[in-house]
Every structure is written in structure tokens, then in C-alpha cells.
Fold:
Amino acid sequence: MFRSLIQSVTVCILLMNGSVLTAYSQTIDLTGYKIFINPGHGGYDPNDRHIPATGFWESEGNLVKGLFLRELLESLNAMVYMSRTANTTADDLSLSVIDEMANAANADFFLSIHSNGFDGTQNYPLLLFRGYDNQPVFPEAKSMAQIMWQKLFEKGNCWTSSNHYVKGDWTFYPEWGDQTGLGVLRTLTMPGVLSEGSFHDYIPESWRLRNDDHLHHESWAFLRAFIEFYDVMPLDHGIVAGVIRDTLLTPAWYFRRGTRDEKLPVNGTRVILTPGNRIYQVDDLNNGFFFFDSLSPGEYKLYFDGPAGYTKDSLPVSVIPNATALADIYLQTDTTKAPEILGIIPDLSDSIPVNQEFTFTFSMPMDPDSVQKAIEFNPEALLNYQWDDDYRTLKLWPSAGLTSKTAYSIIVATAACSRWKVNIAAEQQYSFVTLNRSRLSIEKTYPSDGQTGVTLYPQIRIYFDAPVNEMSASSEIQLVNEGTGQPLTKVRERFIIARGKGAYYFETEQQLEPGKQYTVALYKGLTDAGGFSPGKDYEFSFITRSTIYKTGIVIEPYEEISKFRDPETSGSTAGTNNELTTFTLSSDVKFSGSGAGQLDYVFTGDAGGICRVFDTQKPSLGNNDSSVFGIWVFGDLSCNILEYWFYADGSVNQAVFVDEIDWAGWDYKAVPLNIIPADGEILFHSMVIRQANGGLTGGTIWFDDASLYTPPEIEEPGIEDITVEFRPNPLTGTGIIKCMLPENSVVSVRVYSPDGRVLEIMDNICLDKGVREILWKPSPALANGIYLIDIKIRPFTGVSRETITRRWVLAR
Amino acid sequence: MKNVLLILSFIACCVSAQEIKVKEISKFIPDRAGEYTVSGISPNGKHLLVTGPGSKGLYLIDIKRKKTSTITESAGAGYEPVFSAEGRYICYRSDEYPDNKRVSSLQKVDLITGDTRTLEKRVRNLTVPAVAGNSIVYLADGDQRIKRFNGMIPKSSKEETYVMLEDLAPVICINGIKRTLKPGGKGSYIWVSLSPDKTKLLYCLVGKGTFVSDLNGNVLASAGKLNAPRWIDNQIVAGMVDEDDGMKVISSEIVAFSVTAKKKINLTSTVERHEMYPYPFPDGKRIAFSTSDGMLYIMKIKVRQ
Structure:
């Protein structure tokens, strides 16, 4: 823990011969300085930032840092004011009140303490001062921001970027308006900075931020910055800090490849520092962090006594004054122990499907070949295997399904051994019975039965519980136009086999007709590889969109792929497997011309991935409020989020939600330009796939013929359009969705978070024609931010469906 | 076009108010473009005193001619400058940062001659001045000092009543006797001022809200959230109800509060603009304010007697 600070005084510099060189202006401490500390946010209120995955609240972290900094500053005799010392709603002060407190206190410096959040993939310090990057309102604030950034950066080694993020708030937030910037710096009469010390939504850092000593470490960095800024004598003691990690294991949460966060922190280690025998007990909050402060300079040794299964270790460390010695260590697993099977999924006491996937979890990394050879199914089954990166988890599934209604056993022989060639102690045996399977089942289709508004260029998809016989699928599955009764010619048939299951995809030679019903018929001659049929004819129907497409002038034909950057080099791409994530020219799948852009993507985690393709040509879209920009997109039914990114008013990036990728085949996905806040020219620059919770972790999507459509001033006289307004925007209380409906209609409203999670569903609201209002009262639990409102309107009497998506800013 | 609509919507939404009526709101564009906040209004109501970002600089704008004169470009000069009662003098604090260390000076400007006189030079801890009759009162490194604007003797003893903040607590001086007055008990007090007739204290108690008390500390009215409040007359104050998301201001409206009726009335109601920091004119018939993007506005009001 922090110890009292003892400073010695040096007022002059002596030459070796004893003569005085110069008077030394450095002061002994901070006597006479008034520092105002603002721990940002407060009160667990909607404008607080919470990370459910780790339990972190920004208001708590900021307060712990602020209170400890006050203690440190007061130990150097500074006078400290704080905007809050508790964490209740009453402590969540208006920014204008915080500023006025600092002004009225006549503070010398103002520090607003925060942590940052963006897309969960980044972690670095960001220091903001008022003004433009090179034109600060207070030059002293920029000077301090630079010092503070350096001190924060030096005290850690888990950053995802070493860029010197010291920015003027007017430059950093141009979308808020020229010279608007951060509210908390806005009316200060003294130099002030806002520190975003690290990123609380980057999960490895979020776990570290749960550790008070990690937070205190940031306070020490702030103190060092004040010492340098005010030319106070440096501290004559130092800090030792570090993170204990497993040598082999990787975390289950997202981490940036190539950083120290690739390895799993070890909980519960006892760390002893000698000389002095100071002890630090590492917590169980998945950070592995340890910390010793107020150490006299010199040589020390750290001893690490980890939890069971790890060997003890030690590390020498040199303490230097007024700085942190970082001493990370990777604990070794005790490799002489016999590995154990910790569990098997599913529970084998119940009967299981013939295509069941089995998951084995081992106590340590295994030798995969030995394990695969040691696993035997009886009756015999051909198996597929997939290991996790650590070789601790094995998934296996039968290639062609097991025999139905049959007793099976799985034997894991003692030949299965760890990476260090230590065998499991005893043979393991498991028994189960398969469920009765007597027919081929259809698990899912696209389009779904009864779906309306389907694209005129769908890729029909039928998912089965087993791989289908290809010849039977080609002959026994048809797509029929209900109006003509005629089957359509199928093209690009595909037969998919995955995890013991099967799927059949096809497209049609011709565009479907708008507003028509189509039926996919599966006849009973259809069979799977084992000869099972559905048992009877099966069909499902859908209705195509009611109108033809309005696509306008093509501004990007996707014929020249060199214009585009690969996702890896497009910037903003994160959480993807770079080798498997590529943007190439497709000559097979294309909407028109000789090619289309094909994006193959694979996300490495379950959430937070972003895959961006940057168009270096940045085609101009002008700025006509009535124009609509769209791209032909071949969807992959991944349920991830499609975004288009634009530059507005120069280089202000505007990310626009387009749609959830819940379609397969070509569809024209358009957004009106009037949802982009811009006064000047708008440039299109990127297609982006944002990984959604529950979305597939990979897929392939094609892009073709980006176009700009500007409707004529008088269009289709006599036809009333549906209009929708959202009021107020920003929304502070209850919002009103005002619809002008030309016909009696069924309206469905969905509210999405920016990362694509469905937050609220109001389905099948029947409304008479005319101007109608739907109220949305946001849950108090919703944080302020931008939400996507998706409205689907379907007239009672028609089959057409309008989908309208808008952004709604919640600002309570 | 947008500005016209803004004005119309203001008028339309405020005509039903009982205590105070908004007659007109107009954008005020001085001859010199800039991002301004209102720092003061001359006693005759003919000039706006405005400042730039960070309270840097102090500019006098002739309202009728929209002509801007620079008083100073100094840092900090725009924070609570004061006019002398007859409007001839302006007194302001200015800041410098040699070796990052803040030092402040107190300047007096004669608007007739243009002369500037330094009353205090490079003081480490200098409060902004409070006006007490024909004098200004302030603390320089903890020492109270009183300087006259000119050689005139104060008219009456009542003019010696003033309030100033010391370590975030209101200190009232009546007839030369100072006392700390905390009507709401412990806490940080900001935005303190006396009513024009010097019988009531207006203050914001941080975390609790804005209140009006008598000079004995008896709370007369609670305005709830009403930031940057200032007196329109002896019974009505104007302030702002600003909302933020912890990072930036997301809305702000000008609101009037009647001490007698204990009622708040919105004087603006716009989504697009964030109206902030109202500054009533001495005659109580107009309010100047700025928006979050630094534009200036003047609102004409009518207060029912």
C-alpha cells in the first residue's frame, strides 16, 4: 500500500569541485497548488458505463482513482477539490456544475478521470484537452496532456497501440459541432484535461480495472505527471507491478493477438517481494495483477506461489525511483501430472440425436494425435475432430450420423496423453443411446414459410438433419411460381455437409416477379445419404417484395478489385482471422458485368468483431437529402450486421446501419442520405460487417453495383407513400413513432443496440390507415447512446412490406 | 431559414406562461465572428460583455451597432468581470502561466479614456472581484482588499452589502460585517448572488439544486435543478436546465423561476439548440444567452406585475 512520502530538498546543483553552477528552481512539493479532480460519471445512472462481462462500472473505477490521487496529492501538500467523493445519483453532477465548482475554487488545474469504450478491441490511453490538436485553448493543458499520456503509457504493457493519442477535443469530436467538444472542459477558466486511462470494454483491461491496485497505479501515474508538470522534485521511491499469466492457456474472452493478453491471467497467486517480505495476494478477478508501491530503489526478488497445478517461480527486479518496474511472469504448468478428462458434453444419460456433437474438456493441453487415436466408438463411427487453440477442448462429431435407436459406447484409452507425453491414468468409458430417427427432417429454410418481402433474387436454402442425396435433391426439390404453376430453372446448386448435417442451396435462372407467391416443393423421393426420406411431400411458400428496385446510377461496379483494401489493411478491422478474411474478385457470383467483390470473413471470437473493406476511390455521393445510396449485396444469412461507412463534411466518419444480414441471395440494400448528418459532400468509403451477438462467426458475402438513386421531384402521382417520423430525436423521455399509413396495416417495431442486439420487440400492431402514433418508452436500464429502430409495415390487404430503419439518439 | 423557425417555435411554446412571457428571441450576430459566452451587460443595457472559449478575452459589443471592441485578449478575463455602477469602468481578473504556474492580475479599464490600470499584479491566488457600491472587494492570497472604482464615496451603507465566495462558501458582508452563510448546510456553494434589492441570496448547493434564501439563511424557495442562475428582478431568476451524457451537453433550455410562485417556466424549448448561460439585462426586459456552439441570442421578455 501507499506509504507516506518523504522528500529531500535539493536547491542547487554542485559541480564536482564544489562550486555552485546554478540555482535550482525545482520545488519540494505541491504546496499552494489547487488541483480539481473530477471522477467522471457517477451513480450507476444511465450515463454510467457498465461492462456486464466483468462487472465493471466506470463510475466506480473513476472514483477509486480520484480518491487515491487526492491522497497522493495531499501528501505533497496540494489542496485538492473533488466533484464527488461518493457514487450516488446525487453525485452525478451536471458538467456545467463541475466546471463552475473548479472555477469558483480558483483551481490551478482540472483533471477529469475516465476510462474509455469503443468496440471492445482496443486499449490505450487517450488524453484530451480543449481546442484543436495544434491550437489548444490552454497551451498548458496540451503540455500536461502530453506528459500525462507518457506517464500512463509507461505504467503498463498491455496496450494495443503505442500511438500518441493526445488530442484537442474540437479535433477529436468534429461531429459534435465546431468548437463544441467535451462539456466538462467547456467553461473551465484554467487548464484542464480529460484522461481516458484505458479501455474498459476491452475485456482483459476490464478485468484489470476491477483490481483497486491497478486503479491506484493510474493515480500514481497522474501524480508523476503533476510532479513533472509543476517541476516538483521527483519521488524518491518506485513501484513494482505486473501480471501473472499461464504459459499455455488463452482466455475465453476477446484479446488482441500479439499482445500479452493472449495468455490467460492466473488467479490466486501469492507473490512475495524480498527484501522486506512484502506479500501480495492476487485476486480471483481474472487479471493476475500484483502491485508493490513506495519501494526504495534497488534490487529485489519476486517469488510466485501459484495455485495447484503450477510450478513455483521467481523473478529479479530493479526498482528505480519515480517509476514503475514492470515484472510480468508466465507460470509453468506442472507437466509431470497425468491429464484428466474434466467433462463431456452432452449429458449422456439422455438419448441423443444421431448427429450429436461431443465436447471433451481436458485438464491440460493434450497431444491431439494420441487422443484421436485413443477415442473409439462402438459400434464404429467415422468421426470428425476439432481442437481449440490450447488443445484442451476437443469437439468431435460423426461424419455421416450415428445409427438411430442404438446403444453406443465411447472409450478413451490410456494411450491419450498430454502434450508432455504423460498418459491419462485410466481408461474412460461412456455409454449412450441414440434417438430413433426414421425420416429425413427439415430443420430450417430460407425463405421461411410465409415470409413476405423476399428479394427477387433469393438463394433458396433448405437445412436438413443429415446430408441429402444430391441427385434426389436436384430432382425432387422445385421452386414453383404459384401464379403460373410452372417450376423455375435452378442454377448454382450447392450441397453442404457440416457437423453431420446437410443443406441444399440453389438460385433461379430468372429474377422472380414482384408481389408474387412462390412455393418450394420437396417430394417424397428426396432421400438422405442413409436412404431416409421426409416420408411425405413437404412445401413452404413465400411472397416476394411488392415493388421493383430503384437503383439509379452505378457509381462503383466492383469490376476492379485493386481499388479496395483487404480487411486487414482497411483499418478498424478487428477480431478477424486475417488469413481467412479476404476481399477478392468473384467471376462466378456476380450481379452484373464480369465480376463482384467477394468478402470471405472469419471472426476469431464470439463477439466484437469488425470486418471493414475500404474503397480507396471514395466515390462522391453529393449531398441531396432525397437521394438514396445502395449496393447489391448477396447475403449469407449470418445474422451479422451490415454497415456502410461514409465521410461527411471532409473526414468525419459516419457509420450507418444498413440491415441485419438475414437474407440469402442478391438484394439491393439502400440507405437514404438524409440520415447522414452532413452539410457538405458525402463520400462512400467502406462496407463493414459487424459481428452480432448470436451471428455466425464466418461467412461469405458479395457486393456489386453500388448506385445512387435520386427520385424525380414528382414521382408516381396518386400513390401515397408511407412516411415515418421519430420524435423527439434526441429522445429524453417517451418517444413517438409517427406513421402515415395509406392503408390499414400491421406494424412491427424492433429496437436494436448499435452492436445489433435486439433490445425490444413490438410485433404485429394493427393500425388503421392515416396518421398513427406508437409510443416507445426506453427502459431505464438503457444507457444513453444511439439505437437503431427498425419498422416493418405490411398493409392488411397487400403483400408488400416496407422496412424503415432510423437511428434514435437516447439522451436522458 | 432554420433560425426563423427556431424563433417561431420559441414564441409559440411560451405564450401561455403565467409569470413571464417571451416576446421575441433573435440571434445576435456581432460584426466580429467568434464563439462567445455572455459575461456581463452594461448597467444601461447598451453593451454586451462577452468572452471566448475558456473565458479567454473580453469583448464589449455595442448592441445597437453590433460593433465589437476588444477589452483584452487575456486568459481568464471573461470569468465574472464586473461593471461599476455607472458603467464607466470594467474590472476583470486575468491569468498567466509562467512555468505552468498560474498567476493572476486584476485590471481596471476606463471605458471613456481607454486606460487600463493594474490593481493587482501576478498574485498567486486572486479571487474575482465583487462589487460593493462604488468599490470592488476581493481576496489576494487570502487578504481582503477593497479598491474604489473612482474617488466617489458610496451613497449609502446599504450599498456595502455584497456576497462573495470563499472556498466554495458564500460570505456575506453587511455594513462591513462579514459572515459565512450556508443556508443549506455543509456542501459546495456556487453561482451565488444577491437580488437587486439585496434582500435575498441566490445560490446553487452542489448536488442539491438551486435555492433562494433571505440574508439570515432561511430558505425561501427551492428551484430544483437550475444551473447558472441570475436575477431578472427581485422575484424572478433565470437559469439553464442542461443535460449531458457525462461527456457532452445533449440538451439545455433557458428556464425562469418565480421565487413567489415557486414555479419554473421554460423560456426556450428547442431540440436543435442548447441555450445556455442566460444573463438578464438590468432593466429585466431582456435576457442575453449563448448556445453550445457559441452563438449569441437576445430574448425579449415581459414580466407580469
Notes: Residues 723-810 of chain A form a domain with the Immunoglobulin-like fold (CATH 2.60.40.1930). Chain A touches chain B through 60 residues (CB under 8 Å).
